[in-house]
Amino acid sequence: MPAYSKTSLSLFAFAMLGLLFGACQSSSKKDTADTETAATDSVKEHSLSEPLVRDIYTADPSAHVFDGKIYIYPSHDIDAGVKEDDEGAHFAMNDYHILSMDSINGNVTDQGIGLSIKDIPWAGRQLWAPDAAYKNGTYYLYFPVKDKQDIFRIGVATSKSPSGPFKAEPKPIEGSYSIDPAVFTDSDGKSYMYFGGIWGGQLQRWITGKFDPNGSKTDLKKDNEPALSAKVARLSNDMLHFDEPARDVKIVDKDGKPLLGGDHDRRFFEGSWMHKYNGKYYFSYSTGDTHYLAYAVGDSPYGPFTYQGVIMNPVKGWTTHHSIVDVNGKWYIFYHDTELSGKTHLRNIKVTELKRNPDGTIQTIEPYSN
Ligand code: FUB
User: Fold this and answer.
1) Active-site position among 180, 270, 289, 339
2) What is the layout of strands, in order, in the sheet containing 108-116?
3) Fewer CB in 10 Å around end: N or C, the chain?
4) Which parts of the chain have pLDDT scores under 50?
5) For ligand 1, what atom is nearest to the CA of residue 321?
6) Residue having the nearest C-alpha atom to atom 8 of ligand 1
7) Does residue 244 sit in the same domain as residue 172?
8) If you measure from the C-alpha of residue 255 to the centroid of ligand 1, how many angstroms do you get, rounded to a whole number?
9) Tell me: the pLDDT tens digits for 129-162?
10) Is 23 contained in some domain?
11) The pLDDT of residue 18
């Protein structure tokens, strides 16, 4: 989850602004700010949807319907003054604000801080994309954060209310690593956690099953080998542990062949999500450095999943991360871009309808008009 600028945005306005930005690099801070304002104005004009929240920066929205209300569990982006690097050090978030809405077009209520890094006993730095789940009267907040050795682990915190505050368990979930937990509960009541992210998310450092401190900081660059997979593990009945060792989430092409590491437009990078539609399991994810939200479909929560296509074309900003939720029989995708700030690490969440074709395939969303 690094900080390169996106190459695939095609809007003419963005290209022009890029030239302008290049020409202004040696100018004052004010000139840069003016350019960013112009950039965000252009995004605003062409955007499919509006930012849901404007007074704080939010990203990585995991949305759920709990008790008939929509709850959103996003990252809370801040400008911590940390220098940008390939591993996303500048994404230095410290807490989560939980948001709620009575309906998709309704007002958004900020329920306040649901969990702070200072209240997680084992945490070091960088509170990244969370998710939430409900079971037997308790709400669970799952979160990735680097431990004191600077290794990403996944923790869990509990509350009796979907809006928190949440209390963190004293240790990370045993057997967990990397980032971006997404918890899916199947119709039979069993819950599964999907997780993992390459580059800054450290998944490539776990290929042997143990953390390799000298491992690659970015991709493995093994283009002709099967791509790194997201992981999935069934959760225990108390939702606090893995019930089994994590397995690979295999994504294959239409001929049943695994997607390769060099297939950057289609292979998994980060930001897993799972939803079920008409008995099929839809695994969706970000392709990272090519900035697509893509999906693959399978017959079991474990897969294998056959690649189907793109759910959303690239948004403004390096990262792209989403969730898909059924609200009263209509499906929505929550996502983020950088409309408000024009800066990679200061994002804002959005929502739009997800439409399907009669055969269940998802129609590709274009987040900006030309
Ligand atoms: O918000 C930090 C990271 O950026 C998330 O964990 C990734 O999915 C990307 O959106």
Assistant:
1) 270
2) 57-66, 69-77, 95-101, 108-116
3) C
4) 2-5, 7-35
5) 10
6) 271
7) yes
8) 31
9) 999 999 999 999 999 999 999 999 999 999 999 9
10) yes
11) 33
The CATH number of the domain holding residue 348 is: 2.115.10.20
What is the reported pLDDT for 12?
A: 36
Same-domain status, 99 and 222: yes
Q: 79-102, pLDDT tens digit by residue?
A: 999 999 989 999 999 999 999 999
**Considering the domain boundaries, does residue 358 fall inside one?**
no
Residue 286 alpha carbon, nearest atom of ligand 1? 8
Whether residue 270 lies in the annotated active site? yes
Which residues are CB-neighbours of 136 under 8 A, at least 6 positions away?
Answer: none
Q: Tell me, yes or no, whether 366 lies in a domain.
A: no
User: Parallel, antiparallel, or unpaired: how do β-strands 247-249 and 152-159 relate?
Assistant: unpaired
Chain length of the chain: 370
* Residue 192 domain-assigned (yes or no): yes
Ligand 1 center to 60 CA (angstroms): 6
Q: What span, in angstroms and rounded, lies between the C-alpha atoms of 333 and 62?
A: 10
pLDDT at 40: 65
- Concerning whether 223 is annotated as a catalytic residue, the answer is no
Q: Which residues have any ligand 1 atom within 6 Å of their CB?
A: 1, 59-60, 75, 91, 128-129, 179-180, 197, 270-271, 319, 321
Q: How far is CA 47 from CA 44, 238, 315, in A?
A: 5, 42, 10
User: In total, how many domains does the chain have?
Assistant: 2
Mark whether 255 and 136 lie in a shared domain. Answer: yes
